[in-house]
Design brief:
Blueprint lengths: L1 H5 L2 H50 L11 H10 L6 E7 L2 E4 L11 H9 L4 E7 L2 E13 L5 E13 L1 H51 L14 H58 L5 H31 L8 E4 H11 L7 E4 L5 E4 L1 H18 L4 E9 L5 E8 L33 H11 L3 E6 L5 E8 L8
Parallel strand pairs: 7-9
Antiparallel strand pairs: 1-2, 1-5, 3-4, 4-5, 6-8, 9-10, 10-12, 11-12
Helix pairs in contact: 2-5, 5-6, 6-7, 7-10, 8-9, 9-10
Length: 484
């Protein structure tokens, strides 16, 4: 949860806001820096090129050029350099001269020399040498033969000017742009947090409302503020919650009516059924003295009356579970002995049921409800599976260290079909849709499930690898006593 919260919606919103602010500030700073830098360098460059061209045009050279006196002319040109001092070089055939200490410059590139010979109007180039920026200007001298015509003299003058001051100013611009962007990002953090808070408040309220409804408080509503999309969401949520509350209330009332109806019907049927059972017992005793047709009818009435009595008792038991009125009266008992009594009381000791019951396993159980669990599972295995049925008892320790009492009931039948397994504990579910009649009430496994849950345990159904169905019940071995 902490890792998920570290990159939650609030963090993502703030980061997105900062990213937009950073891109905007960075783009603005970069464009401003580029324009200011270009303007600064362009001004210095234009001034130097224009001044050098004018000085070269105003200086008279005697052709052919002689090396004597050339350096003095170059030094005179260098002293007039703008906006910074120049170092002027001259190249004429094999003659090399300069206003400095070296007649040849290491800054002037071959590309600039080729451009100077190709363009009589001159060329320039910015060069960085050993980390120092230079502006190099090439200006060939020419004879004018008319308003537009010129002839080259093969004398080319070069001016080399350091641009250290411009580089300092450019660096200062870069520092100013950077220093201006960082505080801007810090200032942008505050509106980012405020924006994230304004967006997340309704989302947080929606989450809290959903959690509240999930815990059963269906009257939960969200305050609607404003008229934006989040307000529409809150309004839609409130409408949906109202409709859900109304539907759930209707379902609860319908469920309560159905539960009350089943309970009332079962109650009302118990008294007449008790009388009917007494009558059928008397009729069963005299069935042997009746004619065959009448005897069959009497036995059929007796059997169906017994089934109806079982159904009524099961319905009343289910009604108590639905109304949460079922109580658990636990006691520490010998689990193996309890299972043996269940099998003996139902006369399942004739070889149809085999028991693997190690002694000495004591557990806190409700004896009556544990008896119902075992009886329902064994009876179901005998009716729908196949003999012999095996009942196994053991104790296992789970990963969290709590020991559980495991009871397995396995039969020798064909097993449970895969499509039936998810519904095996449903009420009145029949695995065979064509079988409309069965010996049981259709509620036995549902009642078994409820009794196991009441003990805090679990039950699952499956198939054995060799064939046959198996039901596994797991109940905490030392469940705390609960009287309802």
């Amino acid at each position: 949860m902490r890792r998920a919260r570290a990159f939650g919606l609030r963090t993502r919103l703030v980061l997105a806001f900062l990213l937009v602010a950073a891109v905007s500030a960075g783009t603005t700073a970069a464009l401003t820096y580029r324009e200011a830098r270009n303007a600064l360098l362009q001004t210095a460059q234009d001034t130097a090129v224009s001044s050098f061209r004018d000085q070269v045009q105003q200086t008279g050279f005697v052709l052919p050029v002689q090396a004597e006196g050339l350096e003095e002319v170059l030094r005179d040109l260098a002293r007039k350099g703008k906006p910074h001092p120049w170092v002027v070089f001259a190249e004429y055939g094999s003659i090399r001269a300069s206003s400095g200490t070296s007649p040849v410059s290491t800054v002037i590139t071959p590309e600039l020399r080729r451009a100077a010979h190709a363009d009589p109007h001159g060329s320039f180039e910015r060069v960085v040498k050993d980390g120092v920026p230079y502006l190099t200007i090439a200006m060939p001298t020419v004879f004018r033969t008319g308003p537009e015509g010129v002839l080259p003299t093969r004398l080319v003058l070069y001016a080399v000017m350091r641009m250290t001051d411009e580089q300092v100013n450019v660096d200062a611009l870069l520092t100013a742009a950077r220093d201006g962007a960082l505080p801007g990002l810090a200032i942008a953090l505050l509106p980012g947090l405020l924006a994230a808070r304004s967006v997340l408040r309704p989302v947080r309220e929606l989450r809290q409302a959903a959690q509240s409804m999930g815990s059963g408080r269906l009257d939960t509503r969200i305050p609607v503020r404003g008229s934006d999309e989040l307000a529409d969401l809150a309004h839609t949520f409130n409408e949906s919650a109202g409709k859900l509350q109304h539907s759930v209330q209707e379902l609860r009332r319908a469920e309560e009516r159905a539960r009350r109806f089943a309970s009332d019907v079962s109650h009302e049927l118990r008294t007449p059924l008790a009388g009917m059972l007494a009558v059928t017992e008397v009729l069963d005793e005299d069935a042997g003295r009746l004619d065959p047709d009448t005897a069959r009818a009497v036995r059929l009435i007796s059997s169906e009356t017994g089934k109806l009595a079982v159904l009524v008792e099961d319905l009343m038991e289910i009604s108590r579970f639905d109304a949460r009125a079922a109580e658990l009266h636990t006691d520490e008992i010998d689990a193996a002995e309890a299972i043996r009594k269940t099998l003996e009381n139902r006369h399942w000791t004739d070889g149809r049921v085999r028991a693997e019951l190690p002694g000495g396993i004591r557990a806190r159980l409700d004896p009556r409800r544990f008896d119902i669990v075992v009886a329902n599972l064994v009876g179901n295995a005998l009716r729908h599976g196949g003999a012999p049925v095996t009942v196994r008892l053991r104790v296992e320790a789970r990963s969290h260290g709590v020991p559980v009492l495991v009871t397995e009931v396995a039969d020798s039948g064909p097993g449970i079909r895969p499509e039936v397994l998810p519904h095996i504990f449903d009420r009145f579910y029949k695995a065979d849709a064509a079988r409309t009649r069965s010996a049981g009430s259709g509620l036995g496994l549902a009642i078994t499930l409820e009794n196991v849950r009441l003990h805090g345990g679990t039950i699952r159904a499956g198939n054995l690898p060799r064939g046959g169905a198996v039901f596994t019940v797991e109940i905490p071995l030392h469940a705390e006593e609960d009287d309802g």
